[in-house]
Design a protein that fits this description.
Blueprint (H helix, E strand, L loop, with lengths): L1 H27 L1 H12 L7 H26 L8 H17 L1 H7 L4 H23 L3
Length: 137
């Protein structure tokens, strides 16, 4: 379990950093956020002005998730139950990508490989967090 525990810590650290960056960029630099997400996710939005407005609450949520992740990292053994909402978030995101794959590829122009890559990354996080929690119950 030591290896899986270490991977869970690393994943949570990267998850938290990502959400702090995504949140900051989305709230304060929406034009750059579009380019950032295009590189990261491969999506090419048709309509950008409304998306930039959506980035404000989305980015605020992402920033809060990042801060929350770092708070858990302070003592993951004590606060391990807070991994449950993160695991739920990741499985929902992977599920949306699976269920809406045609729409994602058609509307956002995300390739099949890009979509699967993100689903795999999200499923790995879900599994690591779930295993970490279960091993402490």
């Amino acid at each position: 379990m030591l290896i899986l525990d270490s991977l869970a810590y690393i994943y949570l650290f990267l998850f938290s950093i990502y959400h702090l960056i995504q949140g900051t960029v989305s709230v304060f630099f929406p034009d750059f956020a579009i380019k950032f997400n295009e590189v990261l996710y491969g999506f090419k939005p048709r309509e950008k002005e409304q998306l930039k407005m959506t980035f404000k609450p989305w980015g605020s949520f992402a920033f809060a998730a990042g801060v929350s992740g770092f708070l858990v990292l302070i003592n993951m053994e004590k606060y391990f139950l807070f991994l449950i909402p993160f695991a739920i978030l990741l499985i929902f995101r992977a599920g949306y990508r699976l269920i809406l794959k045609k729409e994602i590829m058609g509307y956002w122009k995300v390739t099949k490989i890009q979509n699967w890559r993100m689903m795999i990354i999200q499923l790995i996080g879900f599994l690591l967090f779930t295993i970490f929690v279960i091993s402490r119950l």
